[in-house]
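EI: anyone free to look at a 195-residue chain?
SC: sure, send it
EI:
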Amino acid sequence: MTSQVKNAITESIQIKIEAADTLPEYIERAGELMVQCLIDGGKILTCGNGSCAATASQFSSILLDRLARERPSLPAINLVADPIILSSMANNGRFEDVFARQVRALGTAKDILLVYSSKGQSKSIIKAIESALSRDMLIIAMTGADGGSVAGLVSGHDVEIRVPANSTARICEVHMLITHVLCDYIDNSLFGEQV
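SC: here you go
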């Protein structure tokens, strides 16, 4: 059992090293888009399913509160946060539209949709992206594996940050790391680097 634990930790570290080699330009571009969105008076809408929902919640929580420094709240909306909305749409057989309907109601062309999808195949995420694109919103997609259907929806104006892994657990671990890096980037860009 000890070797299984050690192998999981080693695999996680190796994937993070590979991500550090391949993803910085995508992360920086996503950070630049987010900073400009916030400067221009826009907001960032986030969504994901399962463990990806937790990471989406973490991102919006950090923007609304803080990561490592006191600062003003930044506008973010977590589309996963309201269990009544989620259960109502699921009960009415519209779970695939749960995020898309919220994007149509809350999103504007000044906003960004930040989606988390470990394999890029969640229908609710795909429909959310389609809704955001119809509103001329920018998309930042956190994916893994081959990017799935989500990869085919992002254009040159958008950013896909694809974790170089196939394991959902490892992908989600790196998504959380990237989330913290992005939030730190936003804070440093808007409020100056901490000494």
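EI: The first helix runs from residue 2 to 22.
SC: 👍
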